[in-house]
Write a structure and sequence with these properties.
Helix 4 (about 85-90) links the parallel strand 3 (about 65-70) and strand 4. The chain is globular. The two termini are about 25 Å apart. The chain contains 13 helices and eight strands. Helix content is about 45%, strand content about 15%. The protein has an eight-stranded parallel beta barrel with strand order 1-2-3-4-5-6-7-8, surrounded by four helices. With about 260 residues, the chain is α/β, with parallel strands linked by helices. It has helices at about 15-30, 35-40, 45-60, 85-90, 100-105, 110-125, 135-140, 145-155, 160-165, 185-205, 205-210, 225-230, 245-250; strands spanning about 5-10, 40-45, 65-70, 95-100, 125-130, 170, 210-215, 235-240. It binds 2-phosphoglycolic acid. 2-phosphoglycolic acid binds next to strand 8. 2-phosphoglycolic acid binds near residues 172, 217, 219 and 238.
């Protein structure tokens, strides 16, 4: 089965719900049906904007998916400040980021938490986007593969192949996130190829061929086409660039 290109805007802690409405509307003006045929487009606003963005998507029949940046792993309970997978699913959220390096670094999320969240997202009928990647120190120390395959295995531990293949894997070298320093297409392509073969080793070669693996880290209209030319890169997780609808649309339309 051909892997459809996938582009997700990760808005992080940016945009009020009013700004978010404008951002998704502007994005939709810059994309046409042929673009959506070629690329699955998702935006992941902050929690406070999910409902507003969902309303725009629904009212205007936009073929844009709604993503969340985080979730708890339980359905409900005494967890002040948390949001659960069923709450997100009910809002029309289709994708949820898990294991983003900013959450691992600033909020103490370890592999065990990431794996719980990932299972909970699948359990609620949504698609997890499993983020992983190495630090600069790890890359320079030659342990990139060890690091990312460890994160991949831990995140997907215990899943059946038909569950694991629904996950989107986002390779995001930490040194390339928000730094303007993109991995070269070769570096990104090699890491994604390695992750695909590692995935195939665990879940079967045909699953490895099917699973979508995307790259994230300072992706912009200037570097996206060289990244997308790599056989094993199926899309991008776009942070800073996705805050500007013009720039994000140009990134999505990487072939233009
Ligand atoms: P960036 O963020 O595009 O701003 O580097 C990517 C991400 O963190 O998902």
């Amino acid at each position: 089965m051909a892997r459809k290109d996938f582009m997700c805007g990760n808005w992080k802690m940016n945009a009020s719900h009013l700004e978010a409405i404008q951002m998704v509307q502007k994005l939709s003006y810059r994309l046409d049906l042929a673009d959506y045929d070629r690329v699955e487009v998702v935006v992941a606003p902050p929690f406070t904007a999910l409902r507003s963005v969902q309303t725009v998507i629904e009212a205007d029949h936009l073929p844009i998916g709604l993503g969340a940046q985080n979730t708890h792993w339980l359905d409900d309970g005494p967890f002040t400040g948390e949001v659960s997978p069923p709450m997100l699913a009910k809002l029309g959220v289709g994708h949820v980021l898990v294991g983003h390096s900013e959450r691992r670094e600033h909020f103490g999320e370890d592999d065990a938490i990431v794996s719980r969240k990932l299972r909970a997202v699948l359990g609620a009928g949504m698609t997890p986007i499993l983020c992983l990647g190495e630090t600069l120190e790890e890359r320079e120390g030659g342990v990139t593969e060890e690091k990312v395959s460890g994160q991949l295995d831990a995140g997907l531990k215990g899943l059946a192949p038909e569950e694991a293949v629904q996950v989107i894997v986002a390779y995001e070298p930490i040194w390339a996130i928000g730094t303007g320093r993109t991995a070269t297409p070769d570096q990104a392509g090699e890491a994604c190829e390695f992750l695909r073969s590692s995935f195939g080793g665990t879940f079967g070669g045909s699953m490895g061929d099917e699973v979508r693996i995307i790259y994230g880290g300072s992706v912009n209209p200037g570097n996206v086409s060289a990244l997308m030319a790599k056989k094993h890169i199926d899309g991008a997780l776009v942070g800073g660039t996705s805050l500007d609808p013009d720039q994000f649309a140009s990134t999505i339309r990487y072939w233009v």
